[in-house]
Amino acid sequence: MKKKITIGDIASELGISKTTVSFVLNGKARENHISVALEKKILKHIEKVGYRPNHFAQSLRTGKTKIIGMLIEDISDPFFASIARIVEEIAYSKGYKIFYSSTENDPQKTRDLLQVFRTRQVDGYIIAPPPGIEKELKELVDDGHPVVVFDRTLPGFKGDNVVADNYQGAFTAIQHFIDNGYQRIAMITLNSDQVQMIERQKGYNDAIKATGQLPIVKKVTYHDDKEHSIREIQDFIAGNGNIDAVFFATNYIADNGLEAIRNLNLSIPQELGVIVFDDYNLFRLFTPSITAISQPIKEMAERVINLMLERLSATAEPGEARSFVLSSTLMVRNSSLPKTHVPFLPQERVGGMIPKTRPS
């Protein structure tokens, strides 16, 4: 069996102290006045001999694992995948690794994963929380663990959070429909207590009520069987034959909804206008292209990981929770053309920042 190489072996072979090797391995060469030439020599030798640091021993010495646990709803969803990718890239550049997993919006699964992360002694937690884990989040914060939640918050959570303005995004989408002559606008959303879904429906409700109309809302089950979900949406649209537009609360509901519309042989936007909350690349490639609310993915991801890194480096005031509500962008495409408009314009007409003001 090949003998495991230690820091002591490296120090002995190079004729330097173990402390010097340790400083280089931990990225602290500059602050400990180790020359660039010596740092390069040590790193080159480490690569040559194939040394692998004992992370468990390092964590015992420093109290840090250099690992951040990240819990998201669904890693296959383009929104969460994009957020996770940016977070991982920035974290890695700062010497941290990201361990992430999907919760499937299941509170018990989330609790189990949090326990795994605690056992691994991760340094911090980035979470898109499902309803029902308020107690677990409070325990993490009370125990002094850095926690940043994003995409949605939970009632009573007192910690760092980064969200999009879900209310204003939905309100602006419906106002766009109204401005373009649509009069009977339905919303298809999740049957969910998630804060962001409640805010989106509130934005829809307020915009509709301002016209004197009544909301027309269909709620579907999260991650329902695809064929069943398509049939449900199909039956809803067919059963409300006087609706002339549909607002989908998420892009994965829209995936099934667009298939349902196709099955009904309805033309978009001539017979049914469509807007989706949460844009992704394929929507601009559809025929017709799909109008969508584009969330500020890059800004959200950067805010999330920077908040976490500040907590880990103790540059943020302990206990001073910080909240960020970010504006989204309405990407106006062909699926919401004015009702009087002749067929199709070029793929994407206008992109405007959503105003932050809310109706009184």
Overview of the molecule:
Helix 1 (7-14) crosses helix 2 (18-25) and helix 8 packs parallel to helix 9 (195-209). The chain is built from twelve helices and 13 strands. The model is unreliable at 344-360 (pLDDT under 50). The strands form two sheets. The chain has a seven-stranded mixed sheet with strand order 7-6-8-9-10-12-13, sandwiched between helices. It has a six-stranded parallel sheet with strand order 2-1-3-4-5-11, with helices on both faces. With 360 residues, it is α/β, with parallel strands linked by helices. It has three domains: 7-53, Orthogonal Bundle (434 Repressor (Amino-terminal Domain)), CATH 1.10.260; 65-164 and 297-324, Rossmann fold, CATH 3.40.50.2300; 166-296 and 328-353, Response regulator (Rossmann fold, 3-Layer(aba) Sandwich), CATH 3.40.50.
Question: What is the gist of this entry?
Answer:
By secondary structure, this protein is of the alpha/beta class. It contains twelve helices and 13 strands.
Summarize the helices and strands and which ones pair or pack.
Elements: H1 7-14, H2 18-25, H3 36-49, H4 55-62, E1 67-72, H5 78-93, E2 97-102, H6 107-119, E3 124-127, H7 134-142, E4 147-150, E5 160-164, H8 166-179, E6 185-190, H9 195-209, E7 216-220, H10 226-239, E8 245-248, H11 251-263, E9 273-277, E10 291-294, H12 297-312, E11 323-326, E12 329-333, E13 348-353
Parallel strand pairs: 1-2, 1-3, 3-4, 4-5, 5-11, 6-7, 6-8, 8-9, 9-10
Antiparallel strand pairs: 10-12, 12-13
| Structural domains: how many | 3
Strand content bin = 15-25%
Distance between the termini: 74 Å
Sketch the major β-sheet: 7 strands, mixed
Tally of DSSP β-strands: 13
Count of helix runs: 12
**CATH H-level superfamily title of the largest domain:** Response regulator
Q: According to CATH, what is the topology of the largest domain?
A: Rossmann fold
